[in-house]
Structure formats: C-alpha cells, structure tokens
Hints:
Elements: H1 30-43, H2 50-66, H3 70-74, E1 81-82, E2 90-93, E3 107-110, H4 115-125, E4 143-147, E5 153-155, H5 158-172, H6 182-195, H7 200-207, H8 212-218, H9 225-245
Antiparallel strand pairs: 1-2, 2-3, 4-5
Helix pairs in contact: 1-5, 2-4, 2-5, 2-6, 7-8
Amino acid sequence: MTGRVVECPIDEMNRPRGSKDAQLRIPPTAPEVGRLFTGWGGELATCRKFAPTARNYTAAKLMSQVGLRVSEACGLDLGDIKWSLGRFGKLHVRLGKGARGSGPRERMVPLINGADRTLRWFIEDVWGQFDDDHSRPGAPLFPSERKNTDGSSRRVGDDALRNGLAAAVAAHFPGWAEKLTPHVLRHFCASELYSGGLDLLAIQEVLGHSWIATTWRYVHVQQTRVEDAWAAGQQRAAKRLEGLMG
C-alpha cells in the first residue's frame, strides 16, 4: 500500500507478489529432452563448425542439468570451476540474478546430475579449439569465435547460446520450436531435480532463488498434492460407504 516492500525475517515463503503472476511454463518430459540432446550430440560428428556447436550444446546441457541462466553461463570463467569442492566439484556463479534489482548474487552450484562429466568433456576436447591458454586469468568458460586484440578469445554472448539452442530444437525437436528456451530448460531442471528426490530448499540453492515461493512455482507441474488429497478423500468416502452398507 505504501509502495515499499519490507522483507519478513520469519516467513520467506510468502514473497511479495508483482502486479501479475509469472507465465505458466510447462517443460517437456525427460525422454523428450533426452531425444533433443541425443540428436544434437549426433550432429557434432558431422557439423560444419564443431567448436561453436559443441559450446552451445554444452551450455544448454548445463541449463538442463543444474538450471543455469543463460546470462550466468555467459559470465562464467574457467577459473570458476572448483573441482576440489564437494563430491563432484562446484561452479562459482558470480553473476547470479539478484532479487528486485539488488545486483549480482553469487552462489556455488554443485556439479550434480552429470554436469561434471559434461564440463570435463567440453574442457578436454573442445575448449582448446577456441583458445590455447587455459591458465589465462579471466579466460571465459564459453568463448566466442571472435578474438581480442591480443589473440585471445572473447566471451560468448547470450544471443549465440539462444540461437544455438533454437536451431537444435528446430532440427531435432521440431514440436517445441520457438517454445523451448533457456528459461524453459531451467524449469525442466527444477522439475527433474524435484521428481528425483531433492527437497525444495536444495533446489532453491541450486537455482539461486531468493524466495522459496519462486522455486515452488518451478516445480508446480510435479506437485501432486491436489491428486493426493482427492485420492485420500475417495478412500474416506469408500470407507464411510462400507460402514453404511455393513
């Protein structure tokens, strides 16, 4: 009412709502996304530009595995991969999205769900085709084909990653053409992690949400509380009917 938002230190579930709810995004199923990446991976053997295609493939794969935003993927450096942390290694996301324009929000993303294997393959087999100096400070994880004045690779832009995903979807998953975006892959990641047993707090940490209510919206498709309540009600009704008939 006053135009100011006061954060409650007790209830982080009921975040302030905007003027309208976020768009409903229903991600594709795991088999469908699997077919996309299988076809895209097969394309790597015959494509005209292997390195850029493999880069776009890897970035999209990470979006589906650990829910990176496209802007976060573009901002990663090679040095942001911390292989010694945790069981699988972690990504230091330095340019995470802040809540309500508060600026970049850092987080550590564990390389779960096969993300560690995806990154190792890219660094060992692909990255050297863009640049030959892995130790250079600030070397981007996802380089561009364009070069700096000193001959080193520039950082890829988000348009290149978005266009790479769009082209792969059109070729290998045409039913989702112009619908499967990096953000939908982020929703897919959240839903898959939830169905795989991760609790909402863990998924919130992986995705970097400020409010768990936001995470709740990402896994809404997998929630079964309405169906469970309906089934329980049917069982209670059946028991009452048995008592009347008996």
